[in-house]
Amino acid sequence: MKYITLLFALAITLTSCNSNDDFIDTDTDTIAQSFETRPVNFTAANNYEVVIQTPNSIDQFENDMTLVYLLQNEQPDTWVLLPQVFYAANFEYQYNYSATSTSTTILLDSPVLSDLDFLPNQELLGKIFRIVRIPVADFSSDLDINNYDAVMNAVGLDTQDIMVIE
Question: Which residues contact 128 (CB under 8 A, 6 or more apart)?
């Protein structure tokens, strides 16, 4: 009986020890995703806002972070993070956004103008945006979200990963 108890204790000791203390549980099925709008127009008819539906192929979770970038210059592409304040023709105006898991609303606003049609057409028409959805687990406080290229690099996305939507 003594030997059975000793064998039982030894078996428990050997099976309960695990030297694999370097294991880190990584979520590999939640990834950052990005999509780009076709040129959109801000007019009085749409109340200077555009609702972009999240494509069905983009997985969005409640805790994901949504970042929206405006194409400010081409060649080379220069993307600026919203909200962003601009000045034109002695007016101040701002592109801003709000996001849910199913859509992103991008709006144009001004603290002094009630009619934004006074802005030049290049500020109202043909705007292109990139929307980046980042799982909170991928976010680092060291990440400079103002730098579009740094964000894309940090989450492992390339230009070919960006879906262009209608």
Answer: 36, 37, 38, 39, 40, 70, 71
